[in-house]
Amino acid sequence: MLPEFREAEPVLPQNKVLVYENAMAKICESRERGLRVILAQGVFDIVHMGHIEYFREARRAGDLLFVGIENDNSVRMNKGEKRPFNNLDDRLDLLSELETVDYVFGFNNEPIYSDSKAFDMYIGRYKDLNPNFIAVSSWDPNLDLKRRQAEEAGVGIVLINHGRSNSSTRLLEFIGYE
User: Fold this and answer.
1) Among the listed ranges 9-23, 40-54, 161-175, which one has the minimum average pLDDT value?
2) Which domains does the chain have, with CATH numbers?
3) Confidence (pLDDT) at 73
4) pTM of structure
5) Of 89, 55, 58, which is closest to residue 71 (Cα–Cα)?
């Protein structure tokens, strides 16, 4: 059973950017106040309408939306030396300006997507942060994997049914960057 809806206080953009440890504390505090916390995560290198729809729908699913962003080294290891196009500080600053995003933070660890250790690393993230739900696109090719990780961490999944499956990688390839 979900807790009663409570209006969260608006947060100014300059106060939305947190370090990982502060995000953990803010999520804990928010849950103690009875707020439903949604965690969205990703690279968000080149923000496009698919991201905006994803954030919009994720925010509607709860009271507060926290967005965790992969750090620059993680992006390089997973997407190649030319990435990220925008560094972590710029990505944090940009997403902090979005009305639908309540808080943003960078991840400290660097999962290599193809490494079997990444499975446990994500479970550790979810346990550390302890949101009520993790937002996952319904078309995500790793949906079953993310379900298992969330289940092991004791966190729920919110399926986001947005229509756009754009990717920053595909956009960068289209303009000849990659």
Assistant:
1) 161-175
2) 14-174 (3.40.50.620)
3) 93
4) 0.86
5) 89
